[in-house]
Write a structure and sequence with these properties.
This protein is mainly alpha-helical. Helices cover 79% and strands 6% of the residues.
């Protein structure tokens, strides 16, 4: 996953996010559960992916600022 020309995730983080996406998609479409549970699963998966992306981007920016000071 990349935002423009800036790579956000490392290889392992990208694999974990893709696995989470696949598991949530399989759960949403192929498991016979109530729609409220499906909505909850989708919201939780989106939140985890969003927060992981945000954290990785912030950590990368902090590293760049720290290197610019040195």
């Amino acid at each position: 996953m990349s935002l423009g020309s800036m790579k956000v995730f490392s290889g392992i983080q990208e694999a974990l996010v893709l696995a989470l996406m696949m598991v949530s998609i399989l759960t949403l479409f192929y498991v016979n559960i109530d729609i409220t549970y499906k909505i909850g699963i989708a919201v939780m998966a989106f939140t985890i992916i969003f927060l992981a992306t945000l954290a990785a981007t912030l950590l990368r920016q902090q590293r760049e600022i720290k290197q610019a000071r040195v």
